[in-house]
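Worked Example 4.2. Read the sequence first, then its structure tokens.
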Amino acid sequence: MPNVFKSKLLNANSLLERAGIMERMIVADLGCGTSGHFTFEAAKMVGEKGLVYAVDVRPSVLDSIKSNAQLKGMENIRSIRADLEKYGSTKIKDSFVDMVLLVNVLFQSRKYYEVIREANRILKKRGKFLVVDWKKTNIALGPPIDYRVDQNDVQAIFVSLGAELLENFEAGPYHFGMIFEKK
């Protein structure tokens, strides 16, 4: 799915603020995508003393993120190549990050339990997950309905891993949003 959808249909700034992003945080944008729309917005918001991990499986995506970060003088972004369906693949330490972003990622995998499990591994206790994905409705825009994830399934996985749903909201006309806290 082209990342134009992340930048045109989703307001990264307002979604990150809603999730409680602050200066000095350590954030992991899992499945950051070519534009790194959420990565770059998060990097601005956490400031020079914060850190954002841009994680993707595609080397070309990470090259693009690195290049753009250098051009923008953003030294608080680190690129990591990882297959999110494999536990431990991010090589980020356990319980290390303050916030995990899963934006338009879960629909791309049939193994979203594994993706969420890896996200849970790297998040600190009391850290937050921001999950945004395509609503499971049959509309022309976005992926086929068979690829979209059910919010109830997503919530059940997070709860089974010890997270609590803090908020369930509309993230725009085509997306749902959920904020969880790791207990």
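Now turn to a second chain, presented in exactly the same format:
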Amino acid sequence: MALGKDKKLIQQTLESLKGIDKQPGDFEFFVGLDGFVDEIIHVVDKRLDFEKYTRVETLAELGDRISRAAGLSANIELIPKQIKLGGNGPIMANALRNFGVNITYSGCIGYPDINPVFKELADACETYSICEPGHTDALEFTDGKLMMGKIEILKEVNWDNIVERITEEKLVEIFSRADLVSMLNWTMIPYMTDIWQKIQDVILPKAAPQGRPFAFFDLCDPEKRNTEDIAEAMEVLAKFEEHYKVILGLNRREASAIATVLGVELSDKPEAVSLEEITRKVAEGMGIYSVVVHPVEEAGVVVGDDYYQVGGPYTSDPKLTTGAGDNFNAGFCLGQVLGLAPEECLVTGTGTSGFYVRNMRSPNLDELMDFLALWVDNVGEDF
């Protein structure tokens, strides 16, 4: 029954995309504020010869290997597979750029000169760099990824540096014209809450956005921040609702952490309740336009009192998972500005992510529609 419902919804979304009145190029997005050089890495299981090896396939296998080394030692070989632009903001902005959205990007993409890994993004967008990028060693597995970040430089992402690099006047202009603003990676940017507050106090009273645009936030694994910091951030984030339709995007683990901080009542432990329950409860606790939660295998969204859910396009052989969530965010936000229904936005989000993990790049709009057509014929299958 659920598979038939998903198939109908995917087909409906495909038809909606074919019939849209506006195109992605009609919209302006502001995205920031992080930036990383991502080094995609495989972990060696067995070395067959100097050229060939077998890979540690799962995080669980790596965990077992590390646990067995306790009290002893271990030699773990890492194979760099790719160096690419990284950070939640650049990956999301790059995916949106592929769709044709006009992007203004500000973040850690190299200062005073743009780091070469961000050159293509910088050439295609209006960019304002704040500082040098961080660095992430992204260990890839079939069941997830281990992100090992070097983030000390992100302390330079603060209000004083932002207004020095961009100016208040330019920020007012940017926020006035943006159909969607997205400020990502609160977890790794220590002064992000203060930046949000300054934007609310200094920039938005002077800005004149058309209508009531969208503001999209992804905290990006807040578990390592203390409860008081998270609670304060959620309070400040919710205040953007005075100017925007605020969307909070979370993976399943993040949703559990936020539910705990908000102190919402659940029928079981946060990690044990259904996707619908955790999404509804976080949405109730936040009091914002929308909360979307996207585990690997499905996604759910609350808008107002309504909940929608769709299964994802499953593959047992993802080629690249680092950035899959950011591609989901890009596809979901594209659906929002195009005026798609909330459940259709789940499909554009999961479809964008599904294309990305198979092809190691983000789709353009035609490629997304082709992927949705392929998905319709393979709902519930490993493809």
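Notes for the reader: The chain has one domain: 2-42+83-376. The chain has a mean pLDDT of 96.
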